[in-house]
């Protein structure tokens, strides 16, 4: 994409991301300019090798030498996007535009951050600006066109929502499940409409061989699991008997073959081998359909011994961007993707184990004094809001320093050890388990052992080189035991194979 400063319409501005033209800084000494460029080049190499943490560090060092380089800010913004630090990426994109309002990659990066945050109208403003400046750039034109389609579709859906009579999932299922099951279908079949252990074993083997569950059974699973989730509160209490093992897993992100490996290592779910999967079952990995039907199937088979929490990726915006919607449409239909949205809105938001361990996908809260009863009564049947308890349960992250800070993601907050300690004392809890962040070892223990992160997708996106992990506890000893494992081979389908092309902005 060209970054020339040809005559063009005025840059887009918003109240959230103002463009400010500043006085040009004094020129750098040649030695400083050379040093900054060398740091940038080192950072570029790290980025090329997908070492985003060191790329960020080196771009930061370059900015320490030359703090007025639009290129350095835009490059660091892109590295932050790859780390899913969308809030930081947005700030850097804004800084790039301030440094040089004619530098088009600044607008491109700002569009990427807005897309990642689900702010499609703001992204469209920047993409339109870039497209007008680069009329011959096919990639810029395509991304502008795709974003415009999304914004138009959303506006149309809002316009017809008033008159539209929504069908229940049960009604949708009745309309669809009457389809004939082909005589040559040899895959798993529900028995009298119910999930059995034999069905689950057959399903996993069927999926392992890259085959598809018949749509009739897929629709029935969605319908039945929604009915089950609707009966549960937003905070589900779990009792683990003294002599029983309990396993907590973090993000799976569509990595089906790694999910099978967890069951290989730790045993299949059963009434004596219960599990909790802590959100982000889908997106990024290209076997998300296989993951979610496996997890939903076990939930139906063992409703009181298999638990699922909602993650920030169980949402419409994330699914549109990072592949799940595209995968469902490719493997089934647009109608089924809408059914998943309905089901995800009923997923519980958190779980409390033996009244001592709170498990949520994201983290803690922007205000003090939050009680477990406040979490039990959250009205969760909706898309995640941009603030409040539900948002923070899905999006927040821990930080090493005390207090609270704005989120690096641009949604939720960052909370320190003092916040964790106060929350635990207020609710008479021992510690919290959360997920939501890639960790090199698959887990991380922070806040004096009181805040544990577990992430169960090894070599995330076939790129990060991290281990996966899960946590075992027993009812009589709630001390966490960590099991780590490496990624296993999977068929040659790349991550993000079904994602929107706009996801490449982020």
Automatic annotation (TrEMBL):
Task: Give me the stretches of Low complexity compositional bias.
Answer: 1-23
Q: Where is this region: Disordered?
A: 1-33
E.C. number? 3.1.3.16
Q: Name one GO molecular function term.
A: metal ion binding
Q: Which UniProt keywords apply?
A: Hydrolase, Manganese, Metal-binding, Repeat, TPR repeat
Similarity comment text for this entry: Belongs to the PPP phosphatase family. PP-5 (PP-T) subfamily.
For this entry, the protein name equals: protein-serine/threonine phosphatase
Tell me the organism.
Culex pipiens pipiens
């Amino acid at each position: 994409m060209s970054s020339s400063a040809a005559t063009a319409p005025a840059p887009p501005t918003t109240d959230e991301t103002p463009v400010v033209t500043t006085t040009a800084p004094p020129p750098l000494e040649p030695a400083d300019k050379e040093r900054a460029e060398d740091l940038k080049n080192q950072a570029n190499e790290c980025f090329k090798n997908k070492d985003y943490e060191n790329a960020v560090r080196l771009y930061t060092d370059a900015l320490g030498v030359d703090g007025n380089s639009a290129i350095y800010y835009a490059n660091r913004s892109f590295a932050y996007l790859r780390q899913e630090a969308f809030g930081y990426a947005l700030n850097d994109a804004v800084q790039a535009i301030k440094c040089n309002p004619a530098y088009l990659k600044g607008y491109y990066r700002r569009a990427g951050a807005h897309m990642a945050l689900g702010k499609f109208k703001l992204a469209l403003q920047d993409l339109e600006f870039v497209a007008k400046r680069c009329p011959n750039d096919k990639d810029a034109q395509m991304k502008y066109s795709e974003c415009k389609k999304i914004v138009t579709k959303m506006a149309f859906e809002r316009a017809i929502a008033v008159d539209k009579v929504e069908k229940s999932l049960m009604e949708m299922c009745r309309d669809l499940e009457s389809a004939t099951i082909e005589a040559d279908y040899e895959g798993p079949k529900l028995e009298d409409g119910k999930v059995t252990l034999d069905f689950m074993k057959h399903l996993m083997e069927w999926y392992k061989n890259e085959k598809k569950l018949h749509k009739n059974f897929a629709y029935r699973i969605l319908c039945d699991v929604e009915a089950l989730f609707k009966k549960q509160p937003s905070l589900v209490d779990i009792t683990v008997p003294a002599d029983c093992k309990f396993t907590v897993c973090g993000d799976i992100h569509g990595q089906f073959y790694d999910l099978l490996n967890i069951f290989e290592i730790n045993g299949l779910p059963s009434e004596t081998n219960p599990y909790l999967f802590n959100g982000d079952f889908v997106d990024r990995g290209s076997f998300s359909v296989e993951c979610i039907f496996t997890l939903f199937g076990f939930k139906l088979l063992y409703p009181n011994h298999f638990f699922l929490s909602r993650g920030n990726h169980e949402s419409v915006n994330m699914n549109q961007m990072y592949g799940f919607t595209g995968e469902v449409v490719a493997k089934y239909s647009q109608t089924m993707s809408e059914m998943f949205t309905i089901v995800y809105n009923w997923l519980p938001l958190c779980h409390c184990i033996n009244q001592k361990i709170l498990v949520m996908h994201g983290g803690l809260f922007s205000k003090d004094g939050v009680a477990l009863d406040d979490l039990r009564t959250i009205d969760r049947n909706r898309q995640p809001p941009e603030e409040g308890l539900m948002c923070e349960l899905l999006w927040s992250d821990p930080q090493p320093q005390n207090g609270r800070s704005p989120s690096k993601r641009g949604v939720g907050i960052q909370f320190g050890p003092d916040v964790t300690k106060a929350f635990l004392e207020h609710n008479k809890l021992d510690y919290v388990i959360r997920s939501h962040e890639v960790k090199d070892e698959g887990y991380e223990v922070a806040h004096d052992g009181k805040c544990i992160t577990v992430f169960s997708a090894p070599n995330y996106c076939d790129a990060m080189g991290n281990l996966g992990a899960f946590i075992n506890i027993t009812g009589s000893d709630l001390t966490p035991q960590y099991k780590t494992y490496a990624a296993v081979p999977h068929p040659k389908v790349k991550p993000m194979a079904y994602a929107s092309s706009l996801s490449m902005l982020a």
